[in-house]
Write a sequence for this structure.
């Protein structure tokens, strides 16, 4: 599996506090069956003053520490970029970061209120050649009032990332309801852990994948945690990747080996080499 939203970098936001905690979290990712993790710390003016160049250095340093300890986890760069008026300028200058220098970029809106002109914001991001991925919409307190907006954004080309823990109930029944509804209605493109530590917000992509598979089948669950994330890291155009599939009655379920499909297990070695 590939996890494209994490706060594993130490001491830069509300994720891991230090290097020891980051290494512990890395081992937890490996234990959960994750091959590649995107390091996506918050970039939020006024609170988390992270910048692209510093994030890239931190990713390189943490990868070196993993390699020294033979922890088989590949790190790629990114950021949990909060909406700002100069968003495109930030991407162009490198202050904000897309995922693995691709066209795909995580975008986090305010949690408690939908920003004005949100559709115009995302239209501008798309017009500049990026594919915005709205992070954890199911956990936003305003999703009930703005669900039609979420639907319109998907129609316009915005991708949606829901949190694995939302599908398992870790964020409460409200987040679970919206996560399941979006999944059933074919509005979800990727699943990620948004892991911050090994206790309160741990890696749980396996549990999320299994919860997704129970609703939309194993093929689509694998698309959520492997095929589309891999396409993102390879900078594949959205039109060349499978579209989200909603709730299905009939599902051809591939054989699993220790919870991992045979197709994923064959690709694991090559994936580590590709993004190392």
């Amino acid at each position: 599996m590939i996890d494209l939203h994490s706060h594993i970098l130490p001491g830069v936001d509300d994720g891991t506090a230090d290097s020891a905690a980051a290494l512990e979290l890395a081992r937890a990712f490996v234990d959960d069956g994750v091959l590649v993790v995107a390091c996506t710390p918050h970039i939020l003016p006024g609170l988390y003053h992270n910048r692209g160049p510093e994030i890239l250095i931190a990713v390189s340093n943490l990868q070196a520490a993993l390699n020294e300890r033979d922890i088989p986890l590949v790190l790629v760069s990114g950021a949990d970029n909060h909406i700002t008026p100069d968003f495109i300028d930030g991407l162009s200058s490198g202050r904000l970061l897309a995922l693995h220098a691709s066209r795909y970029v995580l975008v986090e809106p305010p949690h408690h209120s939908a920003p004005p002109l949100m559709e115009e914001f995302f239209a501008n991001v798309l017009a500049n050649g990026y594919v915005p991925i709205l992070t954890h919409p199911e956990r936003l307190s305003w999703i009930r009032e703005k669900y039609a907006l979420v639907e319109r954004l998907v129609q316009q080309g915005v991708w949606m990332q829901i949190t694995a823990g939302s599908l398992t109930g870790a964020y409460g029944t409200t987040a679970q309801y919206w996560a399941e509804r979006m999944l059933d209605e074919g509005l979800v493109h990727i699943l990620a852990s948004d892991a911050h530590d090994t206790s309160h917000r741990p890696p749980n992509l396996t549990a999320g994948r299994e919860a997704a598979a129970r609703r939309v089948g194993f093929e689509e669950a694998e698309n959520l945690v492997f095929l589309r994330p891999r396409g993102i890291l390879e900078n594949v155009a959205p039109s060349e990747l499978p579209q989200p599939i909603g709730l299905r009655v009939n599902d051809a379920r591939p054989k699993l080996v220790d919870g991992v499909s045979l197709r994923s297990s064959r690709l694991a070695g090559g994936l580590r080499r590709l993004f190392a």
